[in-house]
Amino acid sequence: MLYQRVVLFSLILGLGSCGYQPLYGTSTTGNQVANQLDSISIDQQNTRTGQLIRNEILTSTGHNSDRSPRYKLGFTASTKNNDTVKTFGSDVVRKSFQLSVKYTLSDASNGKVVHRGNTFSHVSYDKTAAPFADHQARINAEERAAKEVGNDISVRLAAYFASR
Known about the structure:
By secondary structure, this protein is α+β, with helices and mostly antiparallel strands. The chain has helices at residues 2-17, 33-38, 48-61, 131-163, and strands at residues 40-42, 71-86, 92-107, 113-126. The chain has one domain: Lipoprotein like domain (Double Stranded RNA Binding Domain). The longest helix is centred in the last third of the chain and has 33 residues, at 131-163.
């Protein structure tokens, strides 16, 4: 029992000395990642997929501020539906929804790009003989892909702010 406590205590000390810092913790300069994420304005989107991504980013960053933004996030999303599994009679039984997003984070005061990146998601779904079920499966795949991409962008932005 004493041995386990010694090992645990040494691991805790080791983590402190290796420079480990929680992503959303306060840095020595006082900047908090959460405050930086809260200062981002996200462009309105004119597609359903774009709006789903925007909503996910707003939700996952905890955005709830009405103050003037320091940063502006813009992105473009492109989607594609592919047949992934066909039977011998050329009937499609499995489809794939592919979502690719390019994003840029720019300074709101001067428009200079400070961070950019690309992300993607591929979500598979079954195709049935029922048209409504097929349509609903595609919508569900789009929502799952948008959630993955929006969350990925949020984590990448948090990592960017934490590394500054």
